[in-house]
Amino acid sequence: MINGRTDSCVEDTSLITLSVLIQVLPESRVESMATPDIAESRGRGRPPTVSVDAVAEIGLGLFLANGFDETTMTNIASAAGIGRKTLFNYFPNKADIVWNRFNRQLEDLTNALEHAPIDIVSTDAVVAAVLSGLHTHPAVLPIMRAEVTLIQAVPSLQSYAYMQGRPWRDAITRFIADREGLDPDDTLPEVLGHGYWHAMFVGFRKWLHSGQSSPLPYVETALRDYSRALQAAFAHEKTQ
Question: Per the database record, which ranges form the HTH tetR-type domain (predicted)?
Fold first, then answer.
């Protein structure tokens, strides 16, 4: 259930996410995550006993089971066995829990762009850099599916995506501007930065509907289709 409605894709994702949590968390915590009303009665203010990622996974499980808007930070803190203050130190708000891994993968993107071979076409370098930032270890994929499912389904998370995606778009914009001898404030590199960000999520959406385990083929196809369209446009412009 997400925001009061049930979806078969979401239910499947929730079950997969819970199976991962069972492997990394004590059974009592998994049970409390699945039944937040019980978790509410647990003592608050305990020192943190789980990692930031484990807390994020608990939050994702609650969002999928009970709805994003219906789940509170108090629910998540109680299910994780930590205090609200600790939770807010980890995540300023609920949306940051969903965007947790995307935010951390930004460093991989920027590093890949900084070390991109100079002889590679800028659009190909961007595609390679974006893909390098997507961690697709089998243990991570169910969590990524849960995150993307929520982002696609919850309007408030979609609105938040614009702000969360800005560092990604800015990194791509600066790279393209530098490679093409443009000013980062010019319209073209900024449009391309936005375009690659949205192409990535087109790939994620295709992945969700496919039922396949890895998003990489779908994200890569979307990014390369966008790159080919850009290269064709550039070639046409040069002939004018």
Answer: 49-109
Q: What is the CATH number of domain 98-238?
A: 1.10.357.10
pTM of the model: 0.73
- CA–centroid distance for 24 within its chain: 20
- Burial of 205 (C-beta count, 10 Å sphere; 0-12/13-18/19+): middle
CA neighbours within 13 Å on the CB side: how many for 185? 0
Are the C-beta atoms of residues 126 and 40 closer than 8 Å to each other? Answer: no
Kindly list the domain boundaries of the chain, sorted by start residue: 48-92, 98-238
The C-alpha atoms of residue 240 and residue 22 are separated, in whole angstroms, by: 61
Q: Which fold has domain 48-92?
A: Arc Repressor Mutant, subunit A (1.10.10)
Q: Residue 86 and residue 89: Cα distance in Å, rounded?
A: 5
Q: Which amino acid would we find at residue 123?
A: T
Tens of pLDDT, residues 37-93: 333 334 444 454 578 989 999 999 999 999 999 999 999 999 999 999 999 999 999
- Rounded (10°) CA dihedral 195, 105, 151, 59: -170
- Sign, Cα dihedral of 7, 29, 99, 230: negative
pLDDT in tens, 100-157: 888 778 888 999 999 999 999 899 999 999 998 887 778 888 888 999 999 989 998 9
Instruction: Determine the pLDDT at residue 51.
Output: 87
SS3 165: coil
How far apart are the C-alpha atoms of 143 and 163, rounded to whole Å? 22
